[in-house]
Amino acid sequence: MPSIDPFSKYKPISLSRKRRTKLPSVRTILLIIIIFCGLVTSKTILMNQYDYLMGLKYWRTGDLELARMEFNKVLTRTPGDAKAVDGLGLIEMKADNLDKAKSLYDQAIQMGLGFSRKFDHLKTGQAFIDKGQYPQAELELQHALEIQPNNADIYAALGTTERALDQTSQAIKYYETALHLDPKNKMAQTQLDEAHSERDRGSVYYIYDRNGVPLALEWTKNGNRGYPMGKEFAHLIGYVDQNTTNNRGSTGLESVYQKDFPGNKLYLTVDSRIQLVISKALGWEKGAIVVLDPHTGEILGSVSQPTYTPEKVHEQWWSYIDNKNTPLKNRAFEGLYEPGSIVKIVTSSAAIEKNLNMSSVFPLYCKGYTYIDNKIFYDNEKHKEIRSLEEAFDTSCNVSYARLGIAIGEDTLFEYDNRFGFNSVPKTINIPVAQGNSPKLGLTNYELAESATGLGDTFRLTPLNAALIVSAIANDGVIMSPYLVQKLTNIEGTVLEENKPVVYKNAINRQTAQFLTTMMVNDVERGIGVKARVKGIKVAGKTGTSGSRNPNFHAWFICFFPAENPQIAMAILAENGGTGKDVAAPIAKKVIEGMMEFMHFSSDNEKK
Description:
Number of domains: 3
């Protein structure tokens, strides 16, 4: 019987050539390689997609270096990736490196860049238009057109960009192409009509008054600036000298917003109708007029005389500079003058609100002067017996206010000067404004008397400051911060910058404002300001006379109207013109009568 080996099934397999396992076929190896490469490629694609998204996310938030790192990761992984190069171009665009951006965009196109919703250059170009950045928009949209040459929206957006850059003829071509590709493109048709209007007119408007009346334009033929109401608006709009030889620089709003022109549009708070009225009323009188809306602080009008022609600044530069009357100076905002009796509004406010015992001052007898610190303190005339604050205000009696000032004290006077805007400057006006100053502490009684009556070498204010003083009374004791610019928009009307009413000073309480309103109405109805009286409307005003007789006094008149429902606050200065009652008050009458021709001054809603 044969023996049985129990371990026979565990014997090693023979290594003979016949029983050896077969090696993988070439086809199998190729399949494995393809699968492996596919896995690697898929992973690379996924990683690239992730880096695209992160790069764009950082780009949108403004983290440009992080965005650059993400796109460079793609290029390290996949050299020659067109989208990554395109992304680097976007970064340079946002950094305002337009030459670098264009170079990168050109590279991306050469690499075969196609359209991608993630890298939508039409959308990015429109975003630059919305921000009023037209050179960036132009480059971005031209790149978009290389990727999508038959996109009507790109042509329309390029047309808008070229209009903003004063290339009206090119804009028309782009709009026409857009309409050829898409005849129903309403935006392109609307913009085309505007472009035709600009071409036919030969100019592009870029500054307007509050009602849309154009105040500044650029001629499309030569790029020169023009000003339809140049002399009336010269000190607000200013000028920009475009000559390269002996350039005279720029001033006013032209200087402040120079980087925004051309292309964007500036709308002012000023009403050109009011501007023409106050300019005509001031006439040849050297000085200034400022008109405000007391409830908002909007500057409705501001003129300075003498004025100049903005278009002729370069050629007439030395005649303007050598003129002793300084026509280039904006007296309304930068001229500093002794205020005189208009400060009696401030002194009266202090006396009322501090509950001054009036019997300690009144009655008094004014003989045209008084002695303070053994020095003569003069008045403008003999007022005889003055029995009350109201009579002192009606007659503008300096002797009375000198006694009031001493009784009130320098601390309180200084406090109320500050409340009414002295010793500070509103930050809401875009062009230069000088700071008015009142006498500081440490005054003698004589200096205190001068301070209470608006006199003294250290007491100065601008006509703008004077308008703010009277606006406080018109607005129940609150001074609104004055502003000149309503809004800045891009070429399509999107608002880039906008101003809103802001409180500047809480000067006095409502009851004090009402009391002063009554006194100011009486001042015009029967007092020293009677020459400002206008039939059919109640005017609340105060005259002022300051400076010296040599060559002549400065004449002031500040007022608001209608007294029952104030719509206008105004300050008038006639520099070296004479007295407030004889010169400035009649000018106010002319202004009010001129405004009544186109404005409806309702007295129905009385101040409550």
